[in-house]
C-alpha cells in the first residue's frame, strides 16, 4: 500500500472509530433518557390512578374493569390494581378473577420495600415484554395495596429503534462526509513525497530529475533542491565516467597487444581487436562466456586461472599455429583487485612477438653472412701477402701475379662494402627517399654509357630502346642509376660471351617500365623469388667467380619499393631472363612536354 493509501487508511480508521464511538454514546444516552422518561410517565400515570384505586378498593364495583379498559385504550397503558396481600382487584386487560397472586412480582416487591417499583420483564399474563411501574397505596399509615401501570415494550422498542436509526444514519453520513476531505488532505500531505519519489526514481533510471517541487516551503523544498544538486553531481560523474570508459576502450582497441579481461568466474568482460586475432574469437560472442569456451588455447586459460587463484602475475611464452605459420606470443596474466582488496578478475596481455623473433633471426643471419662474405677475401688477401713476405727471393713475375690476386681480393672487398652501404641506404630509405620529378632517360643512359665497355669486353650486343621524348618520373636519379646498373651488370655477368642484351624504357599505364633482358643462363623457377634475398646466389662458387656479392637484386628491390614501384622477373633456364622495374610516372594523365 502506498503512502497515500496508508495515510488515508489511518484517517478513515480515526473518522469511523470516532463516529462509531460518538454514535454509540449518543445511542446509549438517548436510550437511557427514553427509559427514564417512560419510567417517569408510568409513575405519573400510576399516581393519577391512585384515587380511583382507593375508592375501588373500599367498595369494589362491577364497572371498574370497564373503566380501566377505557383508560387503557386512551393511554395505551395497562392498568392494574392490587391488594396489599397481592390479589388483583382489577386489570385493564385481564379478568382479575383469573389472574394469579401478584405479591412476588418484582415491581410490587420493590414498591413495598422502597416506595416505588420498576421492572422490565416478560408478562406471563399477556405474554409480552412489558415495562412495569408500581406505587404503594397508603391508608391511615398502613399499606392498603398497589397501583401498577405497564407499557408493552414493543412500543418502547419501536421508538428506540426509530431514534437509533436516526442517530446511526446521521453518524454514517457525517463519517462519509468526512472521508472525502480526509482523502484530499491525505493526498495533499503525501503529494510532495510522491513527487519526490518519482523524481528519485527518474534520477535512478538516469533520466534526470523531473518536476521537482523546488519552490515548496520548508523541508520538502530543501529536499527537492538537494535532490537536484545530487542529480547534477551524478550527471557530471556519469559523463566523466563514460568519457573515461570511451578513452579506455579506444586505447584498448588501438593497442597492438591482445587484451582479455575476465571476471572472478573466468567469464570474459573485455576482448580487444588484437586479442580477437590472436585467440581467433569474436568479442561480441565471447563477452559473458567462460574463457575456456572462447579459446582452445589451454596455456591462456591456465595462466588466467592461475593468476585468479594465486593472485600473482604470471608470464609465459607460447606458440600457436596461425593460419599461415606458427606464431610466438608473450603472455602475461595479471590479477585485478576489487575495491575490497580481493581478486576480482584478471587481465591477460598477449604480445605477438613473431615478427620480432623473425627480425632477430634475420639480423643474426645477416651478421653471420656479412662476416662470412668478408672473411673469404680477407683470408685470401692475407694468404697472398704472407706468401710474398715469406719469400723475399720470389721472382718478380710471380710476385706480380700474387699482387694482382691481392688487388682482386681488395676490389671484391670494396665491392662488398659498397653494396652493403647501398643496401643499408636502400633499406633505410623506404618512405624517406627524396623523390623529385626527373626524366627517367638520363640515369638509364648514364648507366648504359658506364657499362658499355664491360659489355663489349664480353662481346655482347647491347641495344638500348629509350623513348624519344622525356619520361617524367617521381624518383631519385641515384636510385634509378643503381637499379639500372645492377640489372645491366647482372645481365652482362650471367650471359655467356657474345650474348645479346637489351635495355628498354617505356611508359606503361601510370608507370615507367624499365626492362633489362638477356639471352643468358636464366634462372630456375624455384630460385626466381629467392634471388631478391640478401646474399642469395643461385650458384655460390660461380657467383663469387663473377665478382657478385649476392646483394645487387635486394638493393634493386628495396630501391624500387622506396620509389613506390616494384620489380619482377621472368626467366627460363638456358634461354635468358627479363627483369622489369615499374616506377610511378610524375603526372600519369598529363603528357610530358
Ligand atoms: P650477385 O651480386 O651475385 O649478382 P644479385 O643479387 O645481383 O647478386 O643476384 C642474385 C643471383 O641471381 C645471382 O647470384 C644470380 O645467380 C642470379 N641472377 C641475377 N641476375 C641474373 C640474370 N640476368 N641471369 C641469370 N641469373 C641471374
Give an overview in words.
The mean pLDDT is 88. The radius of gyration is 65 Å and the shape is rod-shaped. With 593 residues, the protein is an alpha+beta fold. The chain has helices at 3-58, 64-75, 106-114, 153-204, 218-254, 273-279, 283-286, 291-294, 298-310, 354-390, 396-429, 441-457, 477-493, 525-528, 540-545, 552-562; strands at residues 78-83, 88-91, 117-123, 128-139, 142-152, 258-263, 268-271, 314-321, 326-337, 343-352, 436-439, 461-465, 472-475, 500-508, 511-518, 566-572, 576-584. It folds into five domains: 3-160, Beta-Lactamase (2-Layer Sandwich); 212-254; 256-352, Beta-Lactamase (2-Layer Sandwich); 357-422, Orthogonal Bundle (Helix Hairpins); 430-584, Heat Shock Protein 90 (2-Layer Sandwich). The chain is built from 16 helices and 17 strands. The longest helix has 56 residues, at 3-58. The site of adenosine-5'-diphosphate (ADP) has 23 residues, from helix 13 and helix 16.
Amino acid at each position: 500500500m502506498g503512502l497515500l493509501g496508508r495515510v488515508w487508511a489511518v484517517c478513515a480508521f480515526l473518522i469511523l472509530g470516532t463516529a462509531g464511538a460518538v454514535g454509540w454514546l449518543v445511542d446509549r444516552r438517548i436510550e437511557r433518557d427514553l427509559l427514564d422518561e417512560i419510567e417517569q410517565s408510568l409513575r405519573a400515570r400510576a399516581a393519577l390512578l391512585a384515587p380511583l384505586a382507593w375508592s375501588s378498593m373500599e367498595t369494589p364495583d362491577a364497572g371498574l374493569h370497564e373503566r380501566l379498559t377505557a383508560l387503557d385504550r386512551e393511554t395505551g397503558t395497562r392498568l392494574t390494581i392490587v391488594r396489599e396481600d397481592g390479589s388483583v382487584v382489577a386489570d385493564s386487560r385481564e379478568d382479575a378473577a383469573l389472574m394469579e397472586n401478584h405479591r412476588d412480582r418484582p415491581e410490587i416487591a420493590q414498591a413495598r420495600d422502597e416506595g416505588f417499583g420498576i421492572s422490565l420483564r416478560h408478562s406471563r399474563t399477556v405474554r409480552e415484554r412489558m415495562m412495569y411501574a408500581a406505587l404503594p397505596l397508603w391508608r391511615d399509615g398502613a399499606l392498603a395495596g398497589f397501583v401498577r401501570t405497564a407499557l408493552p415494550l414493543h412500543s418502547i422498542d419501536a421508538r428506540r429503534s426509530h431514534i437509533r436509526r436516526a442517530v446511526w444514519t446521521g453518524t454514517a453520513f457525517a463519517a462519509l462526509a468526512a472521508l472525502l476531505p480526509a482523502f484530499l488532505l491525505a493526498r495533499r500531505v503525501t503529494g510532495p513525497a510522491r513527487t519526490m519519489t518519482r523524481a528519485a526514481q527518474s534520477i535512478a533510471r538516469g533520466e534526470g530529475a523531473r518536476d521537482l517541487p523546488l519552490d515548496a516551503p520548508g523541508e520538502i523544498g530543501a529536499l527537492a533542491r538537494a535532490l537536484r544538486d545530487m542529480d547534477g553531481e551524478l550527471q557530471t560523474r556519469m559523463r566523466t565516467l563514460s568519457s573515461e570508459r570511451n578513452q579506455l576502450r579506444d586505447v584498448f582497441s588501438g593497442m597492438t597487444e591482445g587484451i582479455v579481461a575476465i571476471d572472478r568466474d573466468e567469464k570474459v568482460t573485455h576482448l580487444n581487436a588484437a586479442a580477437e586475432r590472436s585467440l581467433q574469437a569474436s568479442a561480441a560472442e565471447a563477452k559473458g562466456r567462460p574463457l575456456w569456451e572462447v579459446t582452445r588455447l589451454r596455456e591462456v586459460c591456465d595462466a588466467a586461472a592461475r593468476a585468479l587463484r594465486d593472485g600473482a602475475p604470471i608470464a609465459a611464452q607460447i606458440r600457436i599455429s596461425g593460419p599461415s605459420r606458427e606464431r610466438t606470443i608473450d603472455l602475461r596474466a595479471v590479477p585485478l583487485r576489487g575495491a575490497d582488496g580481493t581478486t576480482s578478475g584478471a587481465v591477460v596481455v598477449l604480445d605477438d612477438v613473431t615478427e620480432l623473433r623473425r627480425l632477430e633471426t634475420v639480423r643474426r643471419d645477416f651478421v653471420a653472412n656479412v662476416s662470412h662474405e668478408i672473411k673469404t677475401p680477407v683470408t685470401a688477401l692475407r694468404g697472398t701477402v704472407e706468401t710474398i713476405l715469406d719469400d723475399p727471393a720470389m721472382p718478380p713475375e710471380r710476385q706480380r701475379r700474387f699482387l694482382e690476386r691481392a688487388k682482386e681480393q681488395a676490389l671484391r672487398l670494396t665491392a662488398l662494402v659498397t653494396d652493403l652501404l647501398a643496401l643499408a641506404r636502400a633499406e633505410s630509405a623506404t618512405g624517406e627517399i627524396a623523390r623529385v620529378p626527373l626524366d627517367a632517360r638520363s640515369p638509364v643512359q648514364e648507366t648504359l654509357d658506364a657499362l658499355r665497355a664491360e659489355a663489349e669486353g664480353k662481346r655482347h650486343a647491347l641495344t638500348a630502346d629509350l623513348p624519344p621524348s622525356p619520361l617524367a618520373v617521381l624518383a631519385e636519379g641515384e636510385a634509378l642509376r643503381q637499379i639500372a646498373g645492377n640489372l645491366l651488370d647482372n645481365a652482362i655477368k650471367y650471359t655467356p660471351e657474345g650474348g645479346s642484351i637489351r635495355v628498354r624504357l617505356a611508359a606503361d599505364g601510370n608507370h615507367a617500365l624499365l626492362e633489362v633482358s638477356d639471352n643468358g643462363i636464366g634462372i630456375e623457377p624455384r630460385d626466381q623469388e629467392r634471388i631478391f634475398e640478401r646474399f642469395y646466389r643461385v650458384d655460390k662458387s660461380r657467383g663469387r667467380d663473377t665478382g657478385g656479392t649476392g646483394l645487387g637484386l635486394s638493393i634493386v628491390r628495396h630501391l624500387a619499393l622506396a620509389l613506390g614501384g616494384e620489380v619482377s622477373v621472368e626467366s627460363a633456364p638456358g634461354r635468358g631472363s627479363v627483369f622489369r622495374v615499374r616506377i610511378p610516372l610524375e603526372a600519369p594523365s598529363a603528357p610530358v612536354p
